[in-house]
Amino acid sequence: EGGGGHPPRAAGMAQAEAAGDAGLGPAAAPEGAELAELAAVIGATVPTGFEQTAAEEVREKLGSASRISKDRGKIYFEVPARSLPQVHRLRSVDNLFVVVQEFKDYQFKENKEDALKDLEDLVKKLPWTDPLKVWELNNSLKKKKTKRKKHNLQSPASRGKPSDGGEEGGADQSNTNDQEDCAQAPVAAEAAGGQDAEHPQGVTSRNGAEEEEEEDSEQPAVRAGAQASSESGSKAGEGQTGEGEAKVLRFRVTCNRAGDKHSFTSNEAARDFGGAVQEHFQWKADMTNFDVEVLLNIHSSEVVVGIALTEESLHRRNITHFGPTTLRSTLAYGMLRLCDPQPTDIIVDPMCGTGAIPIEGAAEWPCCYHIAGDNNPQAVKRAANNISSLLRKNESKDSSAALGAPLDVLQWDICRLPLRTGSVDVVVTDMPFGKRIGSKKKNWDLYPACLMEMGRICTPGTGRAVLLTQDKKCFAKALSRVGHIWRRAQTVWVNVGGLHAAVYLLRRTPEPAQDARPCW
């Protein structure tokens, strides 16, 4: 079989997203002493390039050390079961899964049939028990939240409230992805240097009669609350019909594969591995209405088997009204964290679009004041609607009077901002790539003008700017023209919707800006 490496302890965590009840029996979540002793090795997909940022957040909020995977866009950390709800509140992670077992140096056979047979045989040898207990705990917590939401919907205050995209576990993702510019997760392996990157595949039957490709970031709506029909980790068939109430679980396998030394495709790996899972547990394969999503991540010689704990990416948490280029909330968090916001800082997003950056900023750094603006009235309207949705969501969480958010949104011209010279501490924005909005040609004039105006409003000596763009050549040229007011301090390379982009941290020089504008 050729498995290598030392598997870490495996278990899981809690799912804090709401989801529809599948009508199955209650999950037999671990309780008492068992829960207290249960630990989980969690895998998290994060925006590519911000792995270190995510690891720092995990250490600060959970006290756990993280290991950054060789496969870009993933980190791993261990937490006790009692900390699982906090894991779901991390701001920098997209999707979460509990690690069943990890092989750091798995030796694949050169022959395709032998390599796939080894993957099939692996299923029987994996330590499924604790990860499935965690999955059950995950479902039990989802059910509690579902009940709370049902109760809230009956109250007059919340009647007619639109659902918050990214918080609803049962959201229609196909529509969401159509609206988002950044729908592709950065964990998708990048094809570089002869490396072959493939997207995950689902398996629908033992014979693999029909397979379906899924985007790397997609976590389709899952029916929650299913009871593990067999005792966790039991052999196939045990406990399936013990009391006549247990239901057969529905599952699918998703495979992510990257590397040029594999004799098989991700499609074939998902098919054969999924067939073995079906035979081992006697679960029923279902591509869409599945209860369990088994993950098979293969990156060169690194193999990680896991069970998904999120139904849709956590980056959709703040946005209900999408634009043509909506930024992921997790990437917005990474950008904001890069500029190290301090209490009382005034933070401006002069090209806010749907407001992902200022909304994330107001949620995580409420001691700062956030100003959002855009020249497009439709974008300003979407941002205002997203802010309203966030306020309503906060209201529903707290029955006391809502305090609002330290955030304003308005329409303006990026080259003539209605802000005093030197009055802003931080500028954070997603600049036009010149693809869906604007053009590369327009960027040659727009970028220098933007950097000059940002330099004018920022405090000399202490001001910072964090700017995201895919038009790196144009940005470098523009920055060279304003070198007297901006110095590049750091560059983070990121994957945005499959595009190779960069996040630049700039620091304002002490040089005073020339304000040719009339004073008001």
Automatic annotation (TrEMBL):
Q: What is this protein called?
A: THUM3 protein
What protein family is recorded? Belongs to the methyltransferase superfamily.
Species of origin: Spizella passerina (Chipping sparrow)
Provide the Gene Ontology terms for cellular component: cytoplasm; tRNA methyltransferase complex
Q: Does the keyword Lipid metabolism apply?
A: no
Chief location category: cytoplasm
Instruction: Report any Pfam family annotated for this entry.
Output: THUMP
The Low complexity compositionally biased stretches are 10-28, 183-195, 224-238
**Compositional bias annotation for Basic residues:** 143-152
Q: Enumerate the InterPro entries for this protein.
A: RlmKL-like_Mtase, RlmKL-like_Mtase_CS, SAM-dependent_MTases_sf, THUMP_dom
Which gene is annotated as encoding this protein in its UniProt record? Thumpd3
Using the UniProt annotation, give all residue ranges assigned to the region (Disordered).
Answer: 1-28, 143-245
Tell me where in or outside the cell this protein is found.
Cytoplasm
- Record domain THUMP: where: 191-309
Q: For this UniProt record, give its keywords in alphabetical order, as a comma-separated list.
A: Cytoplasm, Methyltransferase, RNA-binding, Transferase, tRNA processing
